[in-house]
């Protein structure tokens, strides 16, 4: 069997594998890493956290996912839901300040505290 015969015989499998790899790369490359755009929610979280006493230089990473394709009035609607929040800030070295930030964000975004991580920065 030649290479051409092999490709002809397994063309659907080859295309399927290629499509899966491409899909994986597109899903997991997204808006991550340096140069990604900061969302409006991340800016809002930054402002809220910086309004606390003794906290400054806040950096926020908000992780979201598409939630519940719900049918309403004949059209489908998808909403973004918060999967987790990571915050680094000067002044957040103290466990008391970390707890205050975690409780604030848990209340504001209706997510469990185990999905929020806060640490101090130098």
* Computed CA radius of gyration, to the nearest angstrom: 22 Å
CATH architecture annotation name of the largest domain: 2-Layer Sandwich
Average predicted local confidence, pLDDT: 79
The biggest beta sheet reads: 3 strands, mixed
CATH topology of the largest domain: GMP Synthetase, Chain A, domain 3
Shape, per Cα inertia axes: elongated
Biggest sheet strand order reads 1-2-3
**What gap, in angstroms, lies between the N and C termini?**
64 Å
Indicate the proportion of strand residues: 25-35%
> What is the count of distinct domains?
2
Number of strands: 3
* Number of helical elements: 4
CATH superfamily of the largest domain: ANL, C-terminal domain
Structure overview:
By secondary structure, this protein is α+β, with helices and mostly antiparallel strands. It has two domains: 1-30; 37-120, ANL, C-terminal domain (GMP Synthetase, Chain A, domain 3), CATH 3.30.300.30. Helix content is 43%, strand content 31%. It has a three-stranded mixed sheet with strand order 1-2-3, with helices on one face. Strand 1 and strand 2 form a beta hairpin. The protein is elongated, with a radius of gyration of 22 Å. It starts with a helix and ends with a strand. The model is unreliable at 31-35 (pLDDT under 50).
